[in-house]
């Protein structure tokens, strides 16, 4: 179709047909105007004087951060331990809840379509809401502290682990499941023998991956009062102690690098 | 299966005794790991301080909040919600566009097979920094630098987008089909022509898919960076929570969930369309 | 023993897979079900153990009506019908022993099976079956470490551990080389004779069907078009089942001998000596 003939009779090749070409122009035009419109909204809400000042502010910030107050690090060990616990316990709790939800949400293991849509709703709600928002809610309910952080991380992890796991369940080979059902196995036995062994590697990989992400997320939960190193970060920022903030940043950076390395090693070992 | 006496196991099985082989051969390592896990769990749980009186007091509030989900209040703070939502959506869109555009050069630079070592190192460093720090930390710094409002939020999200997209793009380029590139080079194509004809067609569908996914993430993130003053629906949510206006909070959360659902649906559609 | 009356299956898409199947299988009879792809062979045997729900008719196994069972009664009925699959359908990440023991799942409770604490006699029987099919050394291997023929033997052991009255066999040889195919068919045949099992075997290979079955049923487009002894299966009947083809010129025997020598090199594995021992005894036991 894209080959047409010029008035002189020579064949002319175009990548797309004329109509497709026009549609594409229209899409680009629409996209660019939408972008400009959005840009306008943002720029209307921005105090440009502050933005022009940004370079000076930035260099000022760096100069205040620069000799980091290393002795502050000694105060940070306990919050760091708390952060690690929030991430780890939260992941464990989240996985424990995500596991049954995933089985209820997978098309091939769900007992009933209604249960499936309920499980999918749980997964979507958990995924849509950032762990910081969960933490904010839980802090107003449970009060500030590590517990709110753990539950926030757990609630956010349900959706992540649940989604990836139910997708893995839907991708298993159906024949072993069929074979196990044919032996007269009960529903739970079919899950245990036919489904579980097939999704176990994926499950382990997903869990470790989520743990890695949770380490990152738990470093900031303290900003809303949910425990961990974020509390110190918040306090330091509020008291404008930027040379302590830089110490905290270095700590966070190091922790995240280590957790990423651990997670990569473990996932490599599993797969 | 070293160290396992297969004949003895067969002999046992003949008599009807058979147990699955343990996952880890060495019993010391096995029990060491179990013990380590238990000790960690005990220590970790012991260090969780729970103020049960406060929790009991909060349970009433939890019930109120659950009740609010059944009767979300969209109306009484309608204007705040609309303004916050508009800000969030505009931030999401602009930051994704800018972030993806900037991520392309960084991603090309971070692919070991097409870029020289100094550029590679710099680009990898950008990616590492952007991925390590949570959006909210970046937002704090940008708010200090650029002042309160959606501009700082947009820059935050764009910065986070760069790290995310560039890393995946670089990985894609690193394991793309090199024969196609060579075939195009063999025709005498220049560097730009090679990019355009050999690399772009291979990574484009995934790039579009990832951009859609990132759009989704950026919207979700835009709902939190408002907490530190970087604009968006997060600020509205934060205010409503601190005022204990749970009806409004519930309404905002429901809106967020609905928009994420819609964008997920839309992005799956777009992905099918581009592939 | 097994009686199908007026069995029909229509898929929700509207495709008719089976129409009015009348079939009766006495104890100990090995029946081969032949027919072109899509004729409904797989659907038919899956209707018997209800992996596929028949939409019409009745299926009786020793006076028990199978089509109306549900829950525990269905489990009990299923465990008396062992099934053997084309792609072996083993659970790759479980050990050979666990795969065989899964044949007991219809008999034991959930926690017992979850903790792998099977009754002693079940484990001993599982091991006897593995010895019988020539794989006693493989008990602790993972199923995906075995070759195709070995996996099919594990599948057979699993089906037999159910102490079935009936074997449902779905294309047992479709993924195997010609030599292993014959060994597997011979093994199934012999086990049926030992335990007086009836069997329905779906099979593509007409030569194998003729050689190893007592009775052949031809299925075409969901209907039975032939039911008789292997010797009655003439070229005309093959044409009604499969459609027009010059059946007589295909030198089946010569061809299969040819391939058999090739198959020898395929199956020369470290455990070849073990796997062939029980089969050699069958071969010397005379024609079946």
From TrEMBL, chain A:
The chain crosses the membrane at residues 22-42, 86-106, 132-155, 241-262. GO terms for cellular component: plasma membrane. The keyword Iron does not apply. It is a multi-pass membrane protein. It comes from the Bacteria. Its main location: membrane. InterPro entries: MetI-like, MetI-like_sf, PhnE/PtxC. Residues 80-263 form the ABC transmembrane type-1 domain. Keywords: Cell membrane, Membrane, Transmembrane, Transmembrane helix, Transport. PROSITE patterns: ABC_TM1 (PS50928). Pfam families: BPD_transp_1. The keyword Transmembrane helix applies. GO terms for molecular function: ABC-type phosphonate transporter activity. Belongs to the binding-protein-dependent transport system permease family. PANTHER family: ABC TRANSPORT SYSTEM PERMEASE PROTEIN P69, PHOSPHONATES TRANSPORT SYSTEM PERMEASE PROTEIN. This is Phosphonate ABC transporter, permease protein PhnE.
From TrEMBL, chain B:
InterPro entries: MetI-like, MetI-like_sf, PhnE/PtxC. It is found in: Cell membrane. It comes from the Bacteria. The keyword Signal does not apply. PROSITE patterns: ABC_TM1. One of its GO terms (molecular function) is ABC-type phosphonate transporter activity. Its main location: membrane. It is a multi-pass membrane protein. The chain crosses the membrane at residues 29-48, 89-110, 246-266. GO terms for cellular component: plasma membrane. Gene3D superfamilies: MetI-like. Keywords: Cell membrane, Membrane, Transmembrane, Transmembrane helix, Transport. Pfam families: BPD_transp_1. Residues 85-267 form the ABC transmembrane type-1 domain. Belongs to the binding-protein-dependent transport system permease family. PANTHER family: ABC TRANSPORT SYSTEM PERMEASE PROTEIN P69, PHOSPHONATES TRANSPORT SYSTEM PERMEASE PROTEIN. This is Phosphonate ABC transporter, permease protein PhnE. It comes from Vreelandella alkaliphila. The lineage of its organism: Bacteria, Pseudomonadati, Pseudomonadota, Gammaproteobacteria, Oceanospirillales.
Automatic annotation (TrEMBL), chain C:
The keyword DNA-binding does not apply. Pfam families: ABC_tran (PF00005). Its main location: membrane. CDD domains: ABC_PhnC_transporter. GO terms for molecular function: ATP binding. It is a peripheral membrane protein. SMART domains: AAA. SUPFAM superfamilies: P-loop containing nucleoside triphosphate hydrolases (SSF52540). Keywords: ATP-binding, Cell membrane, Membrane, Nucleotide-binding, Translocase, Transport. Residues 2-246 form the ABC transporter domain. It is found in: Cell inner membrane. This is Phosphonate ABC transporter ATP-binding protein. The gene is phnC.
